[in-house]
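User: I've been trying to design a sequence by hand for this structure and keep getting stuck. Would you show me what you'd pick, starting by listing the structure so we're on the same page?

Assistant: Good idea, let's start from the same input. This is the structure you sent:
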């Protein structure tokens, strides 16, 4: 049996998780504004006539697609390495802003400006694997 003790520094992980919620709200707000601007009514996910709307929608949707993985790695890795994982989470959040702003230009290849977020994800992945190995080694 493993007793889990959560370090006080895990609070940073919690704050990063909360910050990521604000990121999602911001991206969702942009989609709502784009719906109004381009006249794309619900429940239509993508427009046949407005490619700029589709870019805004994809920036949000792509972030949602990767969000569960981000949260899982942030929380589990953060149990052993809270400060490192909080920093990696901040990198990921900032990268998603760059990703979205690049996509919003209407030139989808500019979304790659946010590719540095994979650095944060790899750190989170390695931290989570290390956490699992340490648990199993007990």
């Amino acid at each position: 049996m493993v007793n889990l003790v959560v370090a006080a520094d895990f609070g940073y992980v919690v704050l990063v998780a909360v910050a990521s919620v604000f990121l999602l709200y911001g991206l969702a707000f942009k989609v709502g504004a784009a719906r109004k601007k381009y006249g794309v009514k619900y429940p239509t996910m993508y427009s046949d006539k407005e490619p700029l709307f589709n870019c805004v929608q994809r920036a949000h949707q792509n972030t949602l697609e990767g969000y569960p993985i981000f949260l899982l790695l942030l929380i589990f890795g953060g149990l052993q390495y809270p400060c490192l994982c909080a920093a990696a989470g901040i990198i990921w959040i900032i990268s998603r802003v760059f990703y979205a702003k690049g996509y919003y230009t209407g030139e989808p290849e500019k979304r790659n400006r946010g590719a540095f977020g994979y650095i944060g994800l790899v750190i989170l992945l390695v931290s989570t694997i290390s956490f699992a190995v340490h648990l199993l080694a007990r």
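That's my pick for every position. To get oriented when you compare it with your attempt: The radius of gyration is 18 Å. The chain has a mean pLDDT of 96.
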